[in-house]
Amino acid sequence: MDLRPKRRPVPMIPIVSLIDIMVILLIFFIATTTFKKDKTQVKITLPESKTLGGEAQVAETRVPISIDEKQKIFLDGQPVELENLAEAITSLKAAKPGIKLELQADTTSALGVLVKVWDALREAGFSINDVPARIQRASGG
């Protein structure tokens, strides 16, 4: 007569399949996460259009020239005086020869400031047609 207690089998947890599931979840989360780079630290309200901006946007990186609601000008997030804008653009172009620019202006920006920015662009050797103004598409309609 055997009086020793019977040994229970140790339950086994299938770790290999759990690791496989974790790897698949990790790949899914990495693939679905969007990584955004803030273009600038300037807070501006872009004008909206109901008809423009519907075309497919080309995903290219451009250095922004921003005009905020107080008519202050920023080149790549750094404040620049209007009188020194052409020199700043020229030095930026010399540092990065293949650079592309874009104009971001607040809805309350004065037309006179925009014309002066365009003059500075021409003085720095850029064509106005090569510097697009980004227009936000209206959410309604």
TrEMBL record:
Annotated compartments: Cell membrane
GO molecular function: transmembrane transporter activity
Membrane topology: Single-pass membrane protein; Single-pass type II membrane protein
GO CC terms of this entry: plasma membrane
Entry's transmembrane regions: 12-31
Pfam families: ExbD
Entry-linked InterPro entries: ExbD (IPR003400)
Keyword annotations from UniProtKB, A to Z: Cell membrane, Membrane, Protein transport, Transmembrane, Transmembrane helix, Transport
Biological-process GO terms, alphabetical: protein transport
Family: Belongs to the ExbD/TolR family.
Protein name listed in UniProt: Biopolymer transport protein ExbD
